[in-house]
Amino acid sequence: MPSFSCPVLGLAAYSGVGKTTLLIHLLPMLRQHGVRPAVLKHSHHPCEIDKPGKDSYMLHHAGAVQTLIASANRTVLRIRHTARPNWEESVHRLGEEADLILLEGYKAVTIPKLELHRPRLGHPLLCAQDSNIIAVATDEPLAWDLSVPLLELNDPSMIADFIVSWLNTVR
């Protein structure tokens, strides 16, 4: 497994399970625990972070390979790629200000992961085939005995506490 500037934890789930919704609840809770989280979100779609007519938009579309927009409270780095960067390259760009990097949507990577599972959606459990899953968060009881902790998917504070506890063991 690659070495990074801080621990990396994936949120592994099929589409529609609620990865982003959970992250929106987890991030402020992790901050309350004193954790500075960063997020790397996978997307199958082109990302447009700027508005047509803005200087940074025009500079990017004029051909700049990198555009860094810096203000008093935010910095945005826009990079033109000729190919999709791998997740390790993206993680290495993060971490300078973070204590934990959360990956959303990278199910197949070889890192510790928290599986999110909604049985009613009919998808198989990922942990049956992925030994990197350290816990499963579900919204319904499971018919299987798991070798990893079982968390309540609808209780973000329980999940945040689990992540903080895990983080304390890997730092």
The largest pleated sheet is described as: 6 strands, parallel
Order of helices and strands: EHEHEEHEEEEH
Structural class based on helices, strands and sheet pairing: alpha/beta
The number of helices is 4
- Which strand-content bin applies to the residues? 15-25%
User: Mean pLDDT across all residues, rounded?
Assistant: 88
Q: Give the proportion of residues in helices.
A: 25-40%
The backbone outline, from C-alpha atoms, is elongated
**Strand segment tally:** 8
Distance between the termini: 16 Å
The main sheet orders its strands as: 2-5-1-6-7-8
Radius of gyration: 18 Å
Labels describing this entry:
single chain, 171 residues, alpha/beta, two-stranded antiparallel sheet, 4 helices, 8 strands
Overview of the molecule:
It is a single chain. This protein is α/β, with parallel strands linked by helices. It contains four helices and eight strands, in the order βαβαββαββββα. It has helices at residues 19-32, 55-62, 87-93, 156-170, and strands at 8-12, 37-41, 66-70, 75-79, 100-104, 113-117, 133-138, 150-152. The strands form two sheets. The chain has a six-stranded parallel beta sheet with strand order 2-5-1-6-7-8, with helices on both faces. Strands 3-4 form a two-stranded antiparallel ribbon. β3 and β4 form a beta hairpin. α1 (19-32) crosses α4 (156-170). It is elongated and about 55 Å long. It starts with 7 loop residues before the first strand and ends with a helix. The model has no long low-confidence stretch (mean pLDDT 88).
Element layout with pairings:
Elements (H helix, E strand, L loop, with lengths): L7 E5 L6 H14 L4 E5 L13 H8 L3 E5 L4 E5 L7 H7 L6 E5 L8 E5 L15 E6 L11 E3 L3 H15 L1
Parallel strand pairs: 1-5, 1-6, 2-5, 6-7, 7-8
Antiparallel strand pairs: 3-4
Helix pairs in contact: 1-4
